[in-house]
Amino acid sequence: MSAPLDRRSLLRGALATGALFGLDALFTTKRTDAAAVGPNDQIKVTKVESFVLKNSWVFVKVSTDAGIVGWGEMLKDDAKACAAGALEVGRYLVGQDPNRVVFHWEAIHRGSFYRGGPVKTAILSGIDQALWDIKGKVYGVPVYKLLGGPTRDKIRIYGQVNPTTGVNAMKVAPNATRAPFKYIEGMKFVGEVAERFKALRDRYGSGVDIAIDFHGAVEPPTAGLLIKALEPYDPWFYEEVIQPLNVEMMAELAKKTHIPLATGERIFTKWGFREVLEKRAALILQPDVCYAGGITELRLIAGMAEAYYSPIAPHNPQGPCSLAASLQVAASIPNFLIQERGDAEHMDLLAKPLPPVKDGHRGLPTEPGLGITIDENKLMSQVGEPQEYKTRFDPDDGSVVDW
């Protein structure tokens, strides 16, 4: 007697004989074009690869014996370290069931004596995205449906104000004839920043939300002067008013203004965000899915923030996986505010499809997994030496200053 066929073998045989047409009616969920496999089938990770692009984007690809692959992105700073670290994780992950996403998150995070930190958490973030991408494809649904979503019908975005696409929210840096290098800037500099922001507000009016990103490059005394000088022109929020390492100082500045403070792009894991929430150092959290711990961790950070009535505005300076994974989080949490760079057209150069931007929003992803398909030929054509991040100096005295 011949051995019984499992579901995957049956479907692969049908593919080989051309009989799949008649089997389509047996399944109600949409199968991916990667493999005929269902959530009850046993699959294993077979390979972990990483790719560093010339613009410093770092991608990780996780392959399985079912033909399904998952993609993720990691921190673009320390690109080579992240890429190498992903390959190290491959020694653990190969042979494992990719559907145990949270289990693998814990195993990778807790599997070494020294844990956390920006590079290690970025590696974990990319792997986590790739595993969720695989799991969504196995189940034939977008990731947000596996996370209990959707919690909304569309996702508000910000980037370039555009009447055609309806984008009506933006973010700018303090604009002056030079960067804010000094510990305490004079009123000439502060006044210049305020006047230029006022001109921007006058240009766009009250119908456009305009945030201002200090990018952690402003020292606390200058930050205190700027947040008061800009208040009359109604900034939407102040982002990273100082370096996020001193949460107490950030909390002090938050008390000096009624404008909400936002932070998070350089904070990682639930443990990093806990202190920000407890000390009320920021009202808006901006975790980065490529850095803070991936989809698994962003979902938990959002839950913590909800208990403090704080919204999530995911940070995103990177590529298509970063945006796609952030959209999955946005679609599944109740306290989502807005998505950074959700209108970036260059995302479509390496991956399709993403729902188009309309009325300032993107529609919810509909394809399984992260909802995108990476064009591997285009991606490989961009592989190369990453951009160099150079130290910045004050042109007046040559001292080192913050980015």
Q: Can you describe what's shown?
A:
- With 403 residues, this protein is an alpha/beta fold.
- The protein folds into 2 domains: 45-140, Enolase-like, N-terminal domain (Enolase-like, domain 1), CATH 3.30.390; 146-367, Alpha-Beta Barrel (TIM Barrel).
- The chain contains 13 helices and 16 strands.
- The protein has helices at residues 7-17, 20-23, 79-93, 101-110, 118-139, 143-146, 187-204, 220-230, 247-254, 269-278, 294-307, 320-332, 376-381; strands spanning 45-52, 58-64, 69-74, 154-158, 169-172, 209-213, 238-239, 261-263, 284-285, 339-340, 351-352, 357-358, 361-363, 373-374, 392-393, 400-401.
- Strands 5-6-7-8-9 form a 5-stranded parallel β-sheet, with no helix packed on it.
- Helix 7 links the parallel strand 5 (169-172) and strand 6.
- Helix 3 (79-93) packs across helix 5 (118-139), helix 4 (101-110) runs antiparallel to helix 5 and helix 10 packs parallel to helix 11.
- The protein is globular.
- The chain starts with 6 loop residues before the first helix and ends with a strand.
- Residues 1-5 and 9-34 have low confidence and may be disordered.
